[in-house]
Amino acid sequence: MIYESENPLELPVLDVSEALDSSALRSLGAACREWGFFQIINHGISKDLFTKIYSLSSKIFSLPSESKLKLGLKTYTPLFIASPFFESLRITLFLSSEIMQEYGSRVTELSKTILRLILTTLGKEFDSKYYESEFQQCHGYMRINNYSSPRSSKEEAEGLGMHTDMSCVTIVYQDEIGGLQVRSREGRWMSIAPREGTLVVNVGDMLQAWSNDRLRSSEHRVVLGRGKPSGTRFSLAFFWCFEDHKVVEAPDDVVGEHEARMYKPFVCSEYLTFRENTERGKFDKVGFTVKDFAALPQNNIA
Ligand SMILES: O=C(O)CCC(=O)C(=O)O
Ligand SMILES: [Fe+2]
User: Fold this and answer.
1) What ipTM did this prediction achieve?
2) Is residue 172 lining ligand 1, measured as CB closer than 6 Å?
3) Is the C-beta atom of 237 inside 6 A of ligand 1?
4) Which tens digit of pLDDT belongs to each residue from 243-255?
5) Which of 9, 24, 41, 52 has the smallest C-beta neighbourhood within 10 Å, fewest atoms?
6) How far is CA 144 from the centre of its chain?
């Protein structure tokens, strides 16, 4: 098998410190349709802030497992739930340290900016028409993820299995180890190589459903070992989501006059519950997607 990082995926890199010109908007639109993934630079988060978060997170993960387990499974996902190599901590921003809060408020602002840009790719007037009315109540949470390397670095192992995110958008910082991969429509795994100063952004299920599949929430995963530098891998994921009681339903002009409606309207929290309760869903992300939950029967061919 060819190891996919030999053939990394070229995703657009957007400079979010300035207004996007029409060609940048076009490549953003194409990336969101085709991959649901793109990258951003000049996002205003300094290297220093990443370094502080990194060292704070390493301290937390190196606590004895009894202390981490005391946080409860809704907060702390220990090793062997999602995979033998993955542990994760959900951060409640308003309860967290100043550093996490600072990061949280920056990615919150970024999420808002990005959502408005994505709306613009769907239709010139859609930002002013839908941002306030549909996305004003969005909220975010963060996860810090710690991946230990498999014993044999010759073997490739899944650190985090194939999943889609439940969010509207997710912003990911991955360290220099790499391993994040996105699945093409044909089922090929493509690597998203880490680049210094760059954040990865992806569309989640809530936005895929709201856009009637015009935006893609792609399956992705994290692989470890095989050709990767050894050592633990660290990532930071921020999920920007609709409020729990939101009814997700694509507006008529987002669907378009001649297109079929792909989903029945659904309440956000019911989808989150579905993902938590499905058989593999001891961990809230692995396995099912919004298509399994809300696709209209004639479209359920995912
Ligand atoms: O660790 C990563 O790079 C990605 C993590 C991820 O996909 C997630 O937390 O949903
Ligand atoms: Fe993810």
Assistant:
1) 0.99
2) yes
3) yes
4) 999 999 999 999 9
5) 41
6) 12
